Q: What sequence folds into this?
């Protein structure tokens, strides 16, 4: 073979190869441009938020995130009530959804038959596909009446002495928003946690069982700690989603910007005030303040998402989409 | 009832029984610590073990040898019923520990009494101390001892103390493979098991680490009964008092190690020992 | 002591089962309530008529259905090419530090709340054109589609075995040709399903439409006028004080959720099968 002379003239081989390279070059450039568009869009997004909020940032400076007045008439804006509502509803929703979600994830990874586990996980992941406006719809017409007639009276009867359950229940409230959020984020916690639990090597379980640990002790003291970074990751992922959730929250939170101890009163969140007031905003300063709220929300979710991904990646679990 | 039976009586009476060349299998007039009687094991519809009847004598090391897939590990895993963690499996037959029916015992208590060391070192991602202390913590402590004492004693027994005494609170994953395996042995020893099952404990280790573990087994047998699965015949010859040879889910032959290696009764054993297959 | 451990074991394991039952129960209640209400209020008029003025009964959401269709068409036209080609770049051409930057930015963009994407589309399209439009809404949804379209494409292309690429290249195909005729066809089912899931996700998005396509009670010809969309109508009708509008919101929710869930179920089935085959 090596001794045989090439049949094609050198020049023709050259042009053929050149043509190949040209085609590859074109494909490379085209796909590179599309990939780079992500980069550009992200930069443009930050730029828009930064420029759009310039008026407000210049006028209020850091006070914006430390004051609680929200007065469109006098154009005096502070983000505290909204940040309060966003953080409180998100954290309360985690308090509800983490125990239930982790419990279900443990059941699905450690207890259920694989076929049943897969089917139930499939159903639970469908919960994540339900559009948030539909959660809002159900929140208004199903959840709020149920909370009003059943849950809140029970809560007030048992835990009513706690300041967080004091005062009258308005239906639309921080508490309602938290419950809706917890239903929305629990599929993320279950789906990611189940996966990291399933990824725990079998020999860890066997090691614990073989020194006489019960199934629960094995699960809780060995399997869950082994997967804890991934579980934290799933919680952060859920938190990031809760922080940025708009429609379902705005439909049940009451849209009243105030800071209060009771969860039963109405509140407001960053995302929902933007949704509600953006089209009503008449002055440039008003719009600018709303965009600055968007910037604050952007910054918070970026940080939380970054932490979530870091945690899940270092455990080797797959990041849920 | 099997505890009262002399070892001789089990030989040759039923055709499934393993052969012994001497006709007077393990000669020690020792007590039988753990014993199986016509043990069958099923994965779903597949029968992995066929009528295994075998005695493990107190304070002896018994090696189980055989080619890959012969069922020796499966058999070992039935002895502390860790096999039950795999779905669609079933144990038939009888296993007795000190005459008690193992299948009727409380499984967590059984596993405390019958410890296990696995093929690959599997320390928990916790500190060295917490690894050893784990079993003690879940099972509770005997009166008048402290966890620290138990941990120290177990690490001594596993011949690991001198190497780790200054870094008890560092993560176990920083140890070498051989140290990790000895840590796993210490973890198993901490709950004071009566029987220690080892499933190819040296297969992931280098020769020096292997030698350390083998030395360790000799000292351990004073306090407990040891069953070791190995595919390394030299290892079986070096450490075991008695050896059983498995093939295709059956116990072909069981006898004193010396007999198995020098004068096996079964053709299959001889072929395997001399390296004609497996 | 032993009893307490056993009780804890049983109680806690049962609790995990109870958690699962609660979640599945919520799912069933949600679906049941929505379908029961939605199906009750769904009429033919819903698909064919414009919204009725306040106070009059009847009417439908024909304009919102068409509006959603137009918005999604725009979203696909923007999201799919950029996402798909960008994914091809990451999977086939990406080397060095730039792809990692793109990947990081993609995840970052994917985590941005949809309301913030709305602000972005407002700034880029609405503020510059000085009016709300279908185009602005489409841009917002398109930008939301890109990150997942991109990562889906990358993931499925990476799943194509290297040997296929080498086989094609060995026959003298160029890299671009190999990708277009061998790699992409091998992954197309997965990519397509992933894109459908992506589309189903943005089809239910409301927040980014509120100040981009705004909403409209009438037909919206062309691309530069405000338009209504199903999720946006659900929102406005649900928070209105009129019972008639609430009924329409239920019907719209029923239609929207049915479409979204159908796409999800079909696409996930296809994905499950392709990942098993691969």
A:
């Amino acid at each position: 073979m090596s001794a045989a002379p090439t049949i094609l003239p050198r020049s023709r081989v050259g042009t053929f190869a050149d043509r190949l390279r040209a085609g590859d070059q074109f494909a490379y450039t085209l796909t590179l441009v599309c990939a780079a568009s992500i980069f550009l869009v992200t930069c443009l997004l930050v730029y828009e938020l930064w420029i759009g909020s310039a008026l407000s940032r210049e006028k209020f400076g850091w006070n914006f995130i430390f004051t609680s007045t929200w007065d469109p008439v006098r154009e005096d804006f502070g983000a505290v009530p909204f940040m309060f509502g966003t953080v409180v509803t998100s954290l309360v929703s985690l308090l509800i959804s983490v125990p239930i979600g982790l419990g279900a994830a443990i059941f699905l990874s450690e207890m259920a038959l694989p076929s049943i586990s897969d089917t139930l996980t499939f159903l639970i992941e469908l919960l994540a596909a339900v559009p948030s406006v539909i959660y809002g719809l159900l929140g208004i017409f199903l959840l709020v009446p149920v909370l009003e007639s059943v849950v809140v009276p029970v809560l007030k009867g048992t835990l009513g002495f706690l300041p967080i359950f004091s005062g009258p229940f308005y239906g639309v409230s921080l508490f309602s928003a938290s419950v809706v959020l917890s239903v929305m984020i629990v599929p993320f916690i279950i789906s990611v946690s189940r996966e990291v639990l399933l990824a725990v090597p079998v020999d860890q379980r066997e090691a614990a069982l073989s020194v006489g640990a019960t199934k629960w002790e094995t699960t809780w003291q060995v399997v869950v700690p082994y997967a804890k970074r991934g579980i934290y990751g799933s919680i952060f992922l859920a938190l990031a989603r809760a922080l940025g959730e708009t429609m379902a929250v705005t439909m049940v939170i009451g849209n009243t910007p105030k800071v209060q101890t009771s969860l039963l009163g109405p509140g407001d969140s960053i995302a929902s005030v933007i949704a509600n007031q953006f089209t009503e905003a008449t002055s440039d300063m008003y719009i600018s303040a709303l965009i600055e709220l968007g910037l604050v929300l952007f910054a918070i979710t970026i940080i939380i998402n970054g932490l979530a991904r870091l945690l899940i990646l270092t455990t080797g679990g797959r990041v849920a989409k | 009832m099997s505890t009262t039976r002399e070892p001789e009586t089990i030989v040759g009476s039923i055709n499934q029984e393993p052969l012994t060349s001497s006709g007077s299998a393990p000669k020690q007039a020792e007590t039988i610590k753990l014993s199986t009687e016509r043990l069958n094991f099923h994965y779903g519809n597949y029968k992995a073990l066929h009528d295994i009847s075998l005695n493990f004598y107190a304070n002896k090391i018994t090696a189980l040898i055989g080619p890959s897939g012969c069922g020796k590990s499966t058999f070992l895993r039935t002895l502390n019923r860790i096999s039950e963690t795999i779905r669609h499996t079933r144990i038939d037959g009888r296993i007795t520990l000190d005459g008690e029916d193992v299948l009727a015992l409380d499984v967590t208590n059984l596993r405390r009494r019958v410890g296990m060391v696995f093929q690959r070192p599997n320390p928990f991602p916790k500190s060295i101390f917490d690894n050893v202390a784990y079993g003690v913590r879940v099972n509770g402590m005997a009166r008048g001892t402290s966890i620290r004492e138990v941990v120290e004693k177990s690490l001594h027994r596993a011949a690991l103390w001198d190497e780790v005494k200054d870094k008890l609170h560092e993560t176990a994953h920083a140890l070498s493979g051989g140290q990790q395996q000895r840590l796993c042995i210490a973890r198993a020893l901490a709950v004071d098991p009566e029987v220690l099952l080892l499933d190819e404990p040296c297969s992931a280790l280098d020769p020096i680490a292997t030698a350390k573990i083998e030395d360790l087994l000799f000292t351990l047998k004073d306090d407990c009964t040891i069953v070791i699965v190995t595919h390394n015949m030299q290892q079986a010859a070096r450490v075991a008092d008695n050896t059983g040879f498995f093939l295709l889910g059956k116990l072909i032959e069981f006898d004193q190690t010396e007999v198995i290696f020098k004068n096996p009764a079964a053709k299959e054993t001889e072929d395997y020992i001399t390296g004609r297959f497996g | 002591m032993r009893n307490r451990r056993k009780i804890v074991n049983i109680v806690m394991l049962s609790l995990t089962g109870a958690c699962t039952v609660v979640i599945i129960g919520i799912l069933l209640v949600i679906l049941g309530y929505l379908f029961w209400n939605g199906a009750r209020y769904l009429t033919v008029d819903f698909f064919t008529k414009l919204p009725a003025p306040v106070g009059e009964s009847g009417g439908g959401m024909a304009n919102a259905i068409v509006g959603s269709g137009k918005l999604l068409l725009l979203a696909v036209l923007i999201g799919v090419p950029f996402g798909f080609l960008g994914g091809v770049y990451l999977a086939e051409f990406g080397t060095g530090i730039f792809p990692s930057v793109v990947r990081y930015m993609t995840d970052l963009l994917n985590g941005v709340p949809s309301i913030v994407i709305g602000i972005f589309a407002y700034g880029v399209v609405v503020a510059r054109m000085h009016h709300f439009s279908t185009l602005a809404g489409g841009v917002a949804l398109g930008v939301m589609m890109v990150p997942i379209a991109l990562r889906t494409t990358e993931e499925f292309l990476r799943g194509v075995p290297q040997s296929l690429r080498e086989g094609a290249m060995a026959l003298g195909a160029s890299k671009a040709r190999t990708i277009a005729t061998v790699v992409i066809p091998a992954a197309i089912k997965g990519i397509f399903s992933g894109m459908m899931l992506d589309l189903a996700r943005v089809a239910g998005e409301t927040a980014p439409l509120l100040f981009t396509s705004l909403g409209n009670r009438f037909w919206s010809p062309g691309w530069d006028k405000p338009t209504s969309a199903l999720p946006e109508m659900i929102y406005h009708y649900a928070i209105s004080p009129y019972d008639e509008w609430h009924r329409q919101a239920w019907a719209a929710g029923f239609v929207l959720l049915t479409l979204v869930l159908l796409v999800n179920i079909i696409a996930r089935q296809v994905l499950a099968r392709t990942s098993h085959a691969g």
Notes: Residues 32-272 of chain B form a domain with the Rossmann fold fold (CATH 3.40.50.300). Chain B has a mean pLDDT of 87.
